Amino acid sequence: MPPVGLRCCRPERQLKKNMRDFTILFDQAEPATLEHPAYKRYGPLGFPALPARRPWIYSNFVQSLDGVASYKGVNATGAHISQSAEDRWLMDLLRAHADAVLLGINTLVEETASGRESGAGSARGPIYVVEDEQCRELRQTLGGRRELNIFVTGARPLNLADYAVFDGDRADAVIITTDDGARRLASSTSHPHVKVIIAGHGQMVELPQAMATLRRDLRVERLLCEGGPTLYGYMSRAGLIDEKFITISPVEIGLEIPREQQPSQAERAAPPRFRPSTFGAPGFIKQNAPWWRWMSCRRVGDHQFSRYRRV
């Protein structure tokens, strides 16, 4: 799946140019635990008490007015839908409050391929860290440890040397996989500093078990899920998403991919027909579909920034 929700392709100096403050329409969430200049643009941001045996898990995505999360093709990233410096900055604010960022491995693979094809990113892909200086200072003030990227994969072959995020230069990395996936990693590459957590057998990761391990063994108390849609969908189905931050960009895209859209190099062999939403797993029925409480809403221009908490 495409790197839905990721808005990391613009240089920091571009992001700060003409940056506007968020207008608070309403906010019923917890107050911030401290005062800090980083809150001036957005307003206070607080979180509730932690669950007993796993992290408090919140997600962050961008979507169009009609619920589409990626154009796919050569413009597949969330930045192409958002086109908002404030949205990219909000990603840093949310990362500043998290002990770790959680992503599906396909998000890393697709983001890396997109950067190579467009020339907008590193040939070895992104590292998912806080870029804004004030947000980095806020993270330190909150007591944040060294930043941590956590990737979930079933048993996909993966050469860690292909991706800069596993070098350990700017952030630590953890891979959550199955017993089969761990065997493939052990036989294909050597990155002893990358921790591997085994949760499940065969192709499917046992997500509740993995989240409990993150809390117990790595002391991850607040976890930010940045996608992609498959990982988010299965996390939601398992009742593991406590909150979601959604940016709604004032653009209408359409679910079916038009014929005139240029496919990416990876799509040319089997061009997809439809674009994804933020939820890429089997859905719910009326009897078990989860409901959400609308906690806060902000705007910048015609962009809407909402926060929902699972009921």
3D architecture notes:
Helix 4 (85-96) runs parallel beside helix 6 (133-141). The chain has a single domain, classed as Dihydrofolate Reductase, subunit A (3-Layer(aba) Sandwich). The protein has a 10-stranded mixed sheet. Helix 7 links the parallel strand 5 (172-177) and strand 6 (195-198). It is of the alpha/beta class and 311 residues long. The protein has helices at residues 12-16, 39-42, 78-82, 85-96, 105-118, 133-141, 179-188, 207-218, 229-237; strands at 23-27, 56-63, 100-104, 148-152, 172-177, 195-198, 222-225, 243-248, 292-300, 303-310. Mean pLDDT is 91; it is low at 1-6 and 8-15.
- Strand arrangement, major sheet: 1-9-10-8-2-7-3-4-5-6
Determine the mean pLDDT. Answer: 91
CATH homologous superfamily label: Dihydrofolate Reductase, subunit A
The major pleated sheet works out as: 10 strands, mixed
Share of residues in strands: 15-25%
Number of domains: 1
What shape does the CA trace take? globular
Tell how many strands the DSSP assignment holds: 10
Helix amount: 25-40%
Q: SSE order, as H and E?
A: HEHEHHEHHEEHEHEHEEE
Give the termini separation.
28 Å
Helix count from the secondary structure assignment: 9
The assigned CATH architecture is 3-Layer(aba) Sandwich
CATH topology: Dihydrofolate Reductase, subunit A
The helix/strand class is: alpha/beta
